[in-house]
Design goal:
The complex is a heterodimer of chains A (198) and B (183).
Chain A lengths: L8 H6 L3 H23 L2 H17 L11 H15 L1 H4 L5 H14 L1 H4 L2 H14 L2 H12 L4 H8 L3 H17 L12 H9 L1
Chain B lengths: L2 H13 L8 H9 L1 H25 L8 H10 L6 H28 L31 E5 L14 E4 L19
Helix pairs in contact in B: 1-3
The chains are: A mainly alpha (198), B mainly alpha (183).
Chain lengths: 198, 183
Amino acid sequence: MVSTQPEGLVERIQSGDMDAFEEFFNTYKRPVFTTALAITRDPFLAEEILQDCFVKAYRVRHRLRRDVSPLPWLQRVTTNLCYSRIARRRALVEPITQLITNLVTDLTIRPDQVAESREIIEVLQRGIDALPPKQQTAVILYYLHGYSLAEAAEIAECNVGTMKSRLHYALKALRSLLPAERRAPAVRPSRLAVDELS
Amino acid sequence: MSCRRIRRELIERFRFGELDGRSAPHLEHLRGCVECRDDVGLDRVVVRNLQRALELRVADVEPSSTSFEAIRRRALEPPGPTWGERLWRWARVVPAGAAIALASFAIVGGMSDGVPQAATPRQLAWPGFQETAPYDPLPERRSFWTEGYLLPSEPASGLIAWVDRSQLPNQPPVGPANQGITR
């Protein structure tokens, strides 16, 4: 999933070729913007982060490696920029324990809507927001971008085991948001499981 | 193999695409265990909805068409000071600030005996004694409250001044320069 860079692109950027830098931007803007948007959920903030990321890339262009894709580095810069920007906002985010309590109450009040996928997705959206940054990044890299475990681990600067662990705890937290008695989705899980296994 | 272990292993293999021949006993167990099937199935449902939730976060939003122009403009601007340069600036400012703080402390410290030291005492109209204003001398040294006293040099100031008793002449001089002084 982490593609190699177009031939000679970094060399041209390093020689000050702005057209090459625009090509570089067009090649990598989408995954960078997607990451910023998935984390911040704010298109304007994601746009600022996208610009900051590429301005930084240009300023350190002489240090970019020519033999590997710059995408993992760009993604790492993006996630760091995101969490430094939203650190102040994060303090305002509802603590996860409170969130779970509220959700349990909500789901108890409206049992007929629990099974709806829309409802589950809404629960998960709030759950993703409440995840610790490292787990949130892991989920976005692995489940949204579709990076392999090794690629996601490279971007997050950790080993594969740590990445697995972060994903495990993230999913555990997200699963726990669904109260046990209300977990059954519209399609029976047992059916799903058997279908996938066969 | 316990249900707990089977669920844990199977869920992990599902999540990370690691199902292989070693998973055959686990799958066989699922056929006969409804609870395990439900648990593994729930995990699949959570993962599927998680992917959908993440896709919805980024759906239908693209970077601005003017992004690159903004980036180009900023990229070509001279870079701001580096951390080393910032540190050097602070290294120069901090001693100056410390010197100012020390000087302020020394001035305040000079007044710590309770007897204010007027920096430039001004001569009043009465020969032989000086105004202590704007500082209030200790009570035993206060002479009188010269409310409304007009300093000869600043007749419009309406300055309120304390006068040091030790410097009073035996007989207050009489004249327009001392108008307003009361004992």
